[in-house]
Amino acid sequence: MRNITLKMLRLFVVAVLTDVFCASSHAQNVIVSATRVIGTMQSTVFEADISSSVGFSATAVKSPYRVIIDIADVNFDLPAGAGRKAGGLISSFRYGLVEERKSRIVLDVSGPVLIGKSQVVPAKGKKSAHLMVEILPTTLENFKLTYELEHPQDSSVAQTAAITPAAAPPTQTTRADQRKVIVIDPGHGGIDPGAVSLSKTKEKDVVLAYGLALRDILQNSPNYKVVMTRESDIFISLNERVKIARDNKADLFIAIHADTVDEKDVRGTTLYTVSDKATDAVAEALAQKENRADVIAGMDLGNQTKTVSDILINLAQRESKNQALYFTKKAVTQLKSFVRFTGKPVRSAAFVVLKAPDVPSVLVELGYLSNKGDEALLNSTEWRSNMATAMAHSVDDYFGLEIAKLTSN
């Protein structure tokens, strides 16, 4: 396994922004009524009691070292002297309105830090809602590297918060061979047939046939190098599938499945990206079915502590998921005139094969073998060919800007 990559280090400053930064229409009525600093020099948590949930962002900056928490316009009802003394990594903090409809809490910290868990915990019973931000120490070298990469001229939190990676094109991979590496992963295989229809159609067979059709189309392009996790009826563990993607430094990982569900009328294509929590019960059930076979391999993060390693993996997955979401947007556009989607064309679930932290990964549920209409399509060579062509166009769209740059050089 590789040690911490430059890409992962770059995530320290940008990806610590929470996903919940947003304006709240009732924010001006929100009151911060109490604060707490809990912890040690190894881990410090800042908490603020708030009258109701509100969006916020948190990021670490330098000169001097601080953690800046931006909140939509709130009122502070704190006792005199609040923030003069704190504890752990936080020496003091201050707060107030910084511009129209935006408040800020600034935590003065003892040195370079990264942000661990940060969230607004909703009110429960007699306990009020509270904002919490966990702060962890990091090395000066790591902090400097990430800060200089992400903030070459300006440390403005507002600029950082304006980043919308979900709408951004993929980042370019640097390698001698500039072709984009696409790993196609037909699910199951060998002793594991996957789903089996009432008429005995096996998932492992139809997804392999589709995967090979997609491979053949993509290989005709000089822009892509295609790697198959399997090209025949063999069993590949989930660990190995993820390892193949990472070992090949894949620019895109496409897992192919065709499952069954209890509801016979459910049919259509669905695209999945990774999530810690599935978007619905069907997604979660499918994820659990796939995950029973294996668990994801670990990562070698050198001398980093488990806490820091977990955060790095988390942050890397966030960027990779954003890229995967960008791909699904392109895929839906290409496929919508050809295929029938389920009620939600794009969903998320905790599929193990999508968890390579540094590889944008999607799982394509081609259709459901529990539905006779979908089964007929999945067994159709013509349909698989047309579906593969549409997916190849999605790949072209996803890498379009970078491919244009490469071919123009």
Describe this structure in words.
The chain is an alpha/beta fold. It folds into 2 domains: 158 residues, Immunoglobulin-like, CATH 2.60.40; 229 residues, Aminopeptidase. The protein contains 10 helices and 15 strands. The strands form 3 sheets. A 6-stranded mixed sheet has the order 11-10-12-15-13-14, sandwiched between helices. It has a 5-stranded mixed sheet with strand order 5-1-2-9-8, covered by helices on one side. A 4-stranded antiparallel sheet has the order 3-4-7-6, with no helix packed on it. A hairpin with a 4-residue loop joins strand 3 and strand 4. Helix 4 crosses helix 9 and helix 7 packs across helix 9. It is elongated. The protein starts with 5 loop residues before the first helix and ends with a helix. The N terminus and C terminus are likely disordered.
Topology:
Layout: H1 6-14, E1 31-39, E2 44-50, E3 56-61, E4 66-72, E5 75-76, E6 90-99, E7 102-109, E8 113-121, E9 129-137, H2 140-150, H3 157-161, E10 180-186, H4 203-219, E11 224-228, H5 238-247, E12 252-257, E13 269-274, H6 281-291, H7 306-335, E14 341-349, E15 361-365, H8 372-378, H9 381-398, H10 400-408
Parallel strand pairs: 1-5, 10-11, 10-12, 12-15, 13-14
Antiparallel strand pairs: 1-2, 2-9, 3-4, 4-7, 6-7, 8-9, 13-15
Helix pairs in contact: 1-2, 1-7, 4-9, 7-9
